[in-house]
Design goal:
The chain has 12 helices and no strands. It is mainly α and 240 residues long.
């Protein structure tokens, strides 16, 4: 079995700063800050998209580099990875492509995380490292299907639909799912933090706890998992 390395060790060679949300007083404000930042990035990216759509790759490259540096724009970094990998507007360079894919991966882009995993697995632009490949595959695949499968198996046994009702099996599957989600959350997988927030919000396998749910949603959003923004706004609306 492949061993996973700590997140901090995986990022040691090349780290980026997270989006700063500020010390906000309510969950909705955190979500608003995230969404406002995302809208600003999309607006800044519009002229770059226009250039790319017209195959003006050479003109797009400096704008992409500026966006990646100034705005924590993982789309820009990911796109630079594609351009350097394919040699569009720049000389093809697998090492430079890996550099940009890694920057996007560290900022939370799921596609880039899978690119980085494949690079480590196959030695594309970086020294082959199966342990790091395993780490980034787990990041990029969001929550493994086994976690979701356990959740639904637990619900099925609890409800007694499709199979006889069995509280013991329901609790076992829910427990296994929660254990895996907590392990992935410790590895900074935003999707896992989000699913834990949902579990605490609805009391799935744990005692209902809106405050705990909010904390998990905040973590998921800080790890660039967009669905958490809507969840935080929902919590704020319930509390007003």
């Amino acid at each position: 079995m492949l061993m996973l390395i700590p997140f901090s060790q995986a990022l040691a060679q090349n780290s980026t700063s997270p989006i700063v949300m500020g010390n906000t007083a309510n969950p909705g404000a955190v979500a608003d800050a995230y969404l406002s930042h995302a809208r600003a990035i999309r607006k800044a990216d519009a002229p770059i998209v226009h250039l790319l759509n017209h195959s003006a790759y050479t003109q797009a490259v400096p704008l992409l580099k500026k966006a990646a540096a100034d705005k924590d724009d993982f789309w820009a970094a990911d796109t630079l990875g594609h351009l350097y990998q394919a040699g569009l507007g720049v000389s093809a360079n697998s090492q430079t492509a890996f550099h940009w894919y890694l920057q996007a991966a560290e900022a939370g882009d799921r596609f880039a995380q899978r690119q980085v995993a494949n690079a480590y697995l196959n030695g594309w632009g970086v020294t082959r490292n199966p342990r790091r490949a395993a780490f980034w595959f787990r990041q990029g695949l969001m929550v493994p299907q086994v976690a979701n499968a356990d959740v639904w198996l637990g619900k099925t046994y609890a409800a007694g639909k499709l199979m006889p009702k069995n509280p013991t099996k329901a609790a076992w599957y829910e427990g296994r799912s929660l254990s895996l989600l907590k392990q992935l959350d410790a590895e900074h997988v935003g999707a896992a933090a989000y699913d834990l927030g949902v579990a605490y919000l609805h009391g799935d396998g744990v005692k209902k706890d809106a405050h705990q749910a909010e904390q998990y949603f905040r973590r998921a959003l800080a790890e660039h998992y967009p669905a958490a923004a809507a969840a935080l706004q929902h919590l704020e609306e319930k509390n007003t």
